[in-house]
Amino acid sequence: MIEMVVYIIVVVLVMVWCYIKWQNRHFEKLAAKMQGPTAYPIIGTGYTFFDSSEQVTSKIIDLVKEYNLLPIKLWLGPYFAVTICKPEDLQLPWGILFLETTMGYNLDTQSNKKDREFGEAIVIKKKKDEFDQRKKAISAKVDLTGNKDENQSKIFLDMLFELNNNVGNFSDSDIRDEVVTMMIAGSETSAITICFCHLMLAIDQDIQDKVYNEIYDIFGDSDETITMEDTTRLVYLEQVLKEILRMYPAAPLLLREIQGDLKIFSNNYILPKGTTCVIPILATHYSPDLYPNPWSFNPENFSPENIAKRHKYSFIAFSGGPRGCIGSKYAMFSMKVTVSTFLRHFSVHTDIKLADIKLKIDLLMRSVHGYPVTIRPRMRTPIK
Ligand code: HEM
Question: Ligand 1 pocket, 84 CB below 6 A?
Fold first, then answer.
């Protein structure tokens, strides 16, 4: 009897193995031609990344550098993936790529699911009731004055509820996922970049002085609120923010699944349908071919002349193509407003050095030891 069971298990395992081999035949054919770390049965090349989240960032950069930024094959168990780092390859027809977004956030992986869902259902119901009341108040106002203002600004949740009432049929969890995605994609990313910006300005006082002088040229010592037009004049601050996003892209890893065979420029490989493309933004941003001395903080990397010299996809902190960040312009605008308003009144200082900054990736990329800066009120005079 036991012999029979063992026999059946062996036969089933062999059949599964054959099925996986058959399914992966196109990937295996390509993998045989490609460079990359050695793959072992079951774990594939996954062992390359077994480490603390602090080490993963440097491991990714080192691995890709070792292969000169060319595509490398990765096997995560039976799943095949290829890294894409070269700007020419990043300019692929993104239309045939399916987004497995790192920005999409699924709360189901967290604990206390039932309690949480119950709490969320109450919150969503409360927000829906508030929305209905606001809507009634607005139409009452409209009826009284007869002056219907279509452009009255709406908060994001109201727009979502309105869309739901008119065309959609979103469940509470759909609404929750949209809100969480917007919160993470829209506020955490900018918040992290602003934190890195203050830390880096604290480390490099000369650059901070240059940023402050630009701010002073625009506002002097007035307390006038910043306008949209003022933000367009904060040219050097924009360079600084882009350099921060180069060195510390809040979303450092992008994933795409190919929906049809796709030829990439490097080595003329044809990636079969179903290949997962791993885009380690950090590896592109730290390539010495694109940015001389990539480990140093140099806002001149984003002077108009230097931008013109580089491929458009050398800077991909906001991703690119049709599924790139929809909030990139707003993000730059809001970060300029926040940093310039802060620096008008305060200066930042720190004891730590650039080399002390250690990075970790959870959903987004952050500094392991936080952003330790001392804030001092500023003498509002230009710095010589
Ligand atoms: C410094 C700030 C920001 C950075 C670095 C950033 C970066 C990115 C990146 C890299 C992606 C592509 C993700 C992927 O392909 O997996 C993305 C997508 C997205 N971003 Fe941003 N983002 C920022 C700010 C914002 C803001 C302010 C908003 C909204 C107001 C926003 C909304 C979104 C949304 C909704 C998506 C998904 C787009 C889609 O699925 O087509 N982001 N962002």
Answer: no
**Ligand 1 centre distance from Cα of residue 190 (Å):** 10
Q: How far is CA 302 from CA 24, 118, 290, in A?
A: 43, 48, 12
Tell me the whole-structure pTM to 2 decimals. 0.82
Gap from CA of 180 to ligand 1 centroid (Å)? 13
Ligand 1 pocket residue status of 367, Cβ below 6 Å = no
Q: Whose CA is nearest to atom 7 of ligand 1?
A: 318
Q: What is the C-alpha to C-alpha distance for residues 21 and 28, in angstroms, rounded to an integer?
A: 8
Residue 252: closest CA among 28, 105, 124, 61: 61
What pLDDT, on a 0 to 100 scale, did the predictor assign at position 116? 57
DSSP string, 47-103: GGG-S-HHHHHHHHHHHHHHTTT---EEEETTEEEEE--SHHHHTS-GGGEEE--SS
Quote the longest CA-to-CA distance of the chain. Answer: 90
Q: How far is the CA of 69 from the centre of ligand 1 (A)?
A: 24
Residue 310 tokens read as 């580089």
pLDDT along the chain (384 residues), means of 10: 90 90 86 86 78 75 85 87 90 53 42 56 71 66 48 71 78 82 85 98 98 97 93 98 97 88 84 90 93 96 97 93 88 97 97 94 90 95 88
Q: Is 183 in the pocket of ligand 1 (CB under 6 A)?
A: no
